[in-house]
Design a protein that fits this description.
The protein is α/β, with parallel strands linked by helices. 40% of the residues lie in helices and 19% in strands. The radius of gyration is 17 Å and the shape is globular. The relative contact order is 0.15.
Length: 233
């Protein structure tokens, strides 16, 4: 779809990939509603483009999601949702805590579900688009990655089921699966600069590409890696 004057919601938008997505979509002419927990960073983001509106959002909390979505819908319907909020915790299974397990699943899986569920009526009415930002590891795993990769496998399964449920309504659902990205992650600290990693803007480019495909095209998945990284399937 043409993004000019469309309304696009982006979660996890205060930094990293979400911030890059919000800015690139706004620059493409869309009205962006950006949510995250860090209100100070959201205020700085909103100051960067006139097409940006922001509101605090904790994707784990149904009341917070409902308030955010009501704010997003105030001016009119939502045309697209980018579920980007996510965290990662890594370690051997016998060293993982229940608190860490619950926190990762609450953000990555429950958050994707809650925000999608709240906005689905509008997305159906608009024949809109859902973008779920997962990871290269949504279809593979690795040692010490049981928690993070399990959450990403769950997001992938959710995405596939949603694709089946809403296809007849004209709603498109795309999973975006980047490899290593030099961005904020896990505890909120940025990864060290790494010339071999993707930039947050690379992921944003892929999302803008997905959102602007013609109506005749359904793009189920975008899977990409840093150049030089050997993909594992």
């Amino acid at each position: 779809m043409d993004l000019i004057d469309r309304t696009v919601v982006v979660t996890g938008a205060s930094r990293g990939i979400g911030r890059a997505v919000a800015l690139q979509v706004a620059r493409a002419g869309a009205h962006v509603v950006a949510g995250a927990r860090d209100e100070a960073e959201l205020a700085r983001l909103a100051a960067e483009h006139e097409n940006l509106r922001t509101h605090r959002l904790d994707v784990r909390d149904p009341d917070s999601v409902d308030a955010f979505c009501a704010f997003a819908l105030e001016p009119g319907p939502v045309d697209a949702l980018v579920n980007n909020a996510g965290i990662g915790v890594f370690g051997p299974v016998d060293e993982l805590t229940v608190e860490a397990w619950d926190r990762v699943f609450e953000v990555n899986v429950r958050g994707t579900f809650l925000t999608t569920r709240a906005l689905l009526p509008s997305l159906r009415a608009q024949r809109g688009h859902v973008i779920n930002v997962t990871s290269d590891v949504s279809a593979r795993t690795f040692a010490n990655g049981s928690l993070y990769t399990a959450s990403k496998h769950a997001q992938r399964a959710f995405t596939r089921a949603l694709q089946m449920e809403v296809a007849e309504d004209g709603v498109r659902v795309t999973e975006v699966r980047p490899g290593v990205v030099a961005t904020f992650f896990a505890d909120g600290t940025p990864r060290p600069a790494d010339a071999s990693a993707l930039a947050a803007e690379d992921v944003a480019d892929a999302i803008v590409y997905a959102l602007t495909r013609p109506d005749r095209m359904r793009l189920d998945e975008i899977h990409f890696h840093p150049h030089g990284q050997t993909p594992e399937y």
